[in-house]
Amino acid sequence: MSRNSCRLGRAPLAALLLATLGLFLPAGARAQPPADRMVPASDLDFVGKPAGEISLPGLDGGTVRLSDHKGKVVLLNFWASWCGPCQREMPALDTFYQQHKGKGFVVLSINVDRDAASARAFLKKLGKPMTFPIGVDDKSAVLGRFAVDRMPTSFLVDPNGVIRRQIVGFRDEDLGLLPQWIAEARK
């Protein structure tokens, strides 16, 4: 069965492409992007590698940090308000989170819209508040670091901060497999 996902618009992809092409210019001819925004081609397979620290402003204030959940299995979930499959995924993830949050599991959600108002409007239209932490990546710093080009995309991070699985798109069947994937991530 095919996965439901949305490709990122041309602007974010063009920016990533231009940044990558800029790597081939003489050092003095280009500005250096922040190290956490560039992803070397050899690092595009993230499974088995450390997720690294993620620290973003929270949609409802405060700061959302991956390190706050050390020792737990974390589903790092990227989404956008314009993503059709995200409309189905978000409530399903929240239901799953409610059933498993007391068992060493957390969903850490990352919205990639350019403005938090779009994210809030999207969530309001869903008709139920999401109970997991939501970070705002409005400058695409984390999005670029993980080379995400489809929404939704999730990474399952083990209790030691190592990525164990990458999930692109959303299928209802994935929720049925998630308990098994979580158990594997704990090993």
Structure description:
This protein has 187 residues and is an alpha/beta fold. The protein has one domain (6-36, 44-186): 3-Layer(aba) Sandwich (Glutaredoxin), CATH 3.40.30. Helix content is 32%, strand content 20%. The chain has five helices and nine strands, in the order βαβββαβαβαβββα. A five-stranded mixed β-sheet has the order 6-5-4-8-9. The longest helix is centred in the middle third of the chain and has 17 residues, at 84-100. The chain is globular and about 40 Å long. Mean pLDDT is 82; it is low at 10-43.
CATH superfamily heading: Glutaredoxin
| CATH architecture field | 3-Layer(aba) Sandwich
Number of strands: 9
Task: Provide the residue-averaged pLDDT.
Answer: 82
Structural class: alpha/beta
CATH topology: Glutaredoxin
Rg from alpha-carbon coordinates:
16 Å
At the first level of CATH, the class is: Alpha Beta
Uncertain spans, ≥5 residues at pLDDT below 50?
10-43
Domain count: the total is 1
The shape, in one word, is: globular
The profile of the biggest β sheet is:
5 strands, mixed
Order of strands in the sheet with most strands: 6-5-4-8-9
Indicate the percent of residues in helices.
Answer: 25-40%
Distance between the termini: 29 Å
Q: What is the element string, with H for helices and E for strands?
A: EHEEEHEHEHEEEH
With helices defined by DSSP (H or I, 4 residues minimum), what is the helix count? 5
Strand percentage lies at 15-25%
